[in-house]
Design goal:
Blueprint (H helix, E strand, L loop, with lengths): L1 H9 L4 E8 L4 E9 L4 E4 H8 L7 E3 H7 L4 E5 L4 E5 L6 H9 L15 E8 L5 E9 L3 E8 L4 E10 L2 E8 L2 E11 L2 E7 L6 E8 L2 E6 L2 E9 L2 E8 L5 E7 L17
Parallel strand pairs: 1-6
Antiparallel strand pairs: 1-2, 2-3, 3-4, 5-6, 7-8, 8-9, 9-10, 10-11, 11-12, 12-13, 13-14, 14-15, 15-16, 16-17, 17-18
């Protein structure tokens, strides 16, 4: 405890010690994260060590992680300074490696922390800007959270994980449209739907069978074949302009089955 306190005092003033936990493997790391009013950024090298994935740049926001791997459930608990990552479908390299090395015991469900109670925080800076965070967590499955600053700008979020197969979330705020998202996971099938007023309904789904993964959304589809841990073949098509892209990957990297492969750095 004393060593952790001394380390915290040595950190830059704009960083915070945060625990990042991958629930499926029960692995966790304590990292120096950048926490601002609306975002949490984690060091890229730490995520690579914990999850087996890499991003461009030294920092990765939680939104970037959710966009790159939309089957993940990523929960930020500011009162506990913890980031919980649920990979129920096993799409992260670290989760896959864990299941391969611990196949005999990997069929049980990972326990969801059963912490319950209210939480809150208050922050103020040298410019007299202030932010209040508050919420309630029930048994790690239902969370109601809200925040308001000194100018009256608000944000809110309600999320629920009633069981290992369903995740529900709704969020909004000042000048932000209310957004409702649902995730359904049944064995090798994953379905996501997102509703935002005045925008088309976003729907995406994924089906996995052996080394083959098929993903489709309202924008594009991706077929990913991974015959071994060192090789990945992808074929993707964008529905609007019928653009088709093929990609061959090799080495200790992981091609996301959700992303449209990049084939050019120019427009």
């Amino acid at each position: 405890m004393t060593a952790l306190l001394l380390l915290r005092l040595l950190l830059p003033s704009d960083t915070t010690l945060v625990s990042v936990e991958l629930i499926e493997t029960r692995e966790s790391i304590v990292v120096e994260a950048v926490v601002t009013d609306s975002t949490v950024r984690l060091p890229n090298n730490a995520l690579r060590d914990l999850l087996g994935v890499s991003f461009v740049g030294p920092w990765v926001s939680l939104e970037q992680l959710r966009t790159q791997y939309p089957t993940l459930v990523v929960q930020w608990r500011p009162a506990e300074l913890r980031v919980l990552i649920f990979d129920e479908l096993g799409n992260l390299p670290a989760t896959r490696a864990f299941h391969e090395h611990h196949r005999a015991t990997a069929f049980g469900t990972a326990p969801i922390p059963t912490i319950s109670g209210p939480w809150g925080s208050f922050a103020v800076d040298d410019q007299r800007r202030a932010l209040l965070d508050a919420g309630y967590l029930w048994r790690g499955r239902v969370q109601v959270a809200g925040r308001v600053d000194d100018r009256g700008i608000t944000q809110w979020n309600v999320s629920a994980v009633p069981n290992a197969h369903v995740f529900l979330s709704s969020s909004g705020g000042t000048k932000q449209p209310t957004q409702v998202s649902t995730r359904l996971m049944l064995g090798p099938v994953w379905i996501l739907s997102t509703y935002t007023p005045y925008r088309p309904l976003e729907v995406a789904g994924l089906v996995r069978g052996g080394p083959v993964t098929a993903f489709a959304s309202t924008q594009y589809g991706v077929l990913t074949i991974t015959p071994s841990s060192q090789w990945t073949v992808q074929l993707a098509q964008r529905w609007a302009d019928h653009r088709t892209v093929g990609r061959l990957s090799f080495g200790p990297t992981f091609a996301s089955p959700f992303g449209f492969p990049v084939s050019s750095l120019s427009h």
